Amino acid sequence: MPLRLVHIAFAGLLAAPAFAQQAADTVTTEGTSTGDFPGLSGPAAASMEAKMAGEPVMAEDWMVAAANPLAVQAGAEVLRNGGTAADAMVAVQAVLGLVEPQSSGLGGGAFLVWYDAESGELTTIDGRETAPLDATPEYFLNDVGEPLDFWEAVVGGRSVGTPGTPRLLESVHEMWGNQEWAGLFGDAIELAEGGFTVSPRLATLVAEEPEDRLPRFEPTAAYFYPDGEPIQAGETLTNQAYADTLRAIAESGSDAFYTGPIAEDIIATVQDAGGLLSMTDLAIYDVVERPAVCADYRETDVCGMGPPSSGALTVGQILGMLDSFELASMGPDSPQAWTLIGDASRLAFADRGRYMADSDFVPMPTEGLVAPDYLSLRAEQLNPDQALTEVQPGEPVWDHAQLWGDDRSIEFPSTSHISIVDSEGNALSMTTTIENGFGSRLFVRGFLLNNELTDFSFATHEEGYPIANRVEPGKRPRSSMSPTIVMQDGAPLLVVGSPGGSRIIGYVAQAIINYVDWDMNPQQAVAAPHLVNRFGTYDLEDGTTATELEGPLQEAGFETNVRDLTSGLHAIAFENGSLVGGADPRREGIALGE
């Protein structure tokens, strides 16, 4: 198949709602420009410039969008050489673990949604971390039975779950890849050994870390604080240990990670820092293929990852409750539209807090939560002119009775998202994470270990009822990651996802509304100002026109909070035989295609 040059869609070609148009001027980035990536040139540089100008990237054959240009270029090279989206994902993730180590990597986990062009079917792969077999529901309680302080639990070995990313990479490649496994790590190994330029985002986050977190452990401090000073933007950083780890995985598969010397070093690091992870936990880990969870919205099916992720269910609930309201006619500047979106989100989060957890361990009303009749009943509570004074979980249909207490888990934003479409028409949406920025702060063999276990509820019971998302041996903690493929007439329409802790759900739901209801192109949809409501307080993105809605939303009855909302949305749309991509200007990524 002949290669095609990347095409950039310029301003005069696409109409933009005012709410979206201003995003390019007012949504702040963390120092992102082509100058921050000295090796960036050609189509990749043009894609970065397009993003900063608020313009989408267009292509005819394939496209990849991810959080760092170096990772995107690695994936693009695989796709250019005929690789599938699965092959490209492996290359992208390998580089992300080097250049964006605070967000994802070998020491974390991921959820992946796959559309298979040949069969026309959707499936999902669960690469979520698991709790140690020695963990108990009281794992995050202190000596007097009270929940630990969040940061006391995060930093160190207690928070580390069995990593899932290496096994996911290998499993997905075995199912859908067509390129040689070992060759997919070449770019990451070369960058690790030869050095990469430290980005402004990585340098800023390292500099902002408190002294009792990232610098606390000697191997971590030696890498991120050479000579006692935090790494600086523009410096060249090498990571021979990471190159050696990747080379071992390239040569021997993911078993090189889960058994042998690498595994022994992981366990020693975790246990020396107070954790329970064991060699058995690593040896028995495997990913799980699960059916996609889909919800109706307008004339589309919004499909994503089911339990243990709450993403697809909660995004689906929000959109399902809004399906009977004409958001298109209200427009993105309408306080009434955002009153409906905010309260639909609150209702969905109430259900999420009570019912959603690892369905391999606790029964869940998964189908009942996104049943159209149930969502229509929940939507009857919505009023475009008045915020709900009280929000309670609903009563979805179960196949048997079950009572749960409401969850008390905390999620802090980090994570990364990858969207890919290959020349065969396969589509991949993957959200990948080590949970909090820099995870547990434990650094071993060139990568950081996750703090994923703090996604469990620290408390075990609420008002006498067990909490569904409490810790149990081998259980996977609930997540908000929402990798999504929106389907229409049996074919993919939009591939999208974001990092951002529990706000991921709001970011993804809003991006879909922006695209489906408000006719924004993918770049406008991911750049538009954010308004997110989870538990009652409406977060409005600072420095954007979202703040102009603060007064009307307060009059409707909402409490508001103006703050930074640093999503990392990456979207690819299928439009008239072409691919149209967008990358969030709040972070350093790009969309690139040919």
Automatic annotation (TrEMBL):
Position of the signal peptide: 1-20
EC number(s) given by UniProt: 2.3.2.2, 3.4.19.13
Listed pathway(s): Sulfur metabolism; glutathione metabolism
Record-linked InterPro entries: GGT_bact, GGT_lsub, GGT_peptidase, GGT_ssub_C, Ntn_hydrolases_N
Keywords: Acyltransferase, Glutathione biosynthesis, Hydrolase, Signal, Transferase, Zymogen
Molecular-function GO terms, alphabetical: glutathione hydrolase activity; leukotriene C4 gamma-glutamyl transferase activity
Protein name: Glutathione hydrolase proenzyme
Species whose genome carries this gene: Tranquillimonas alkanivorans
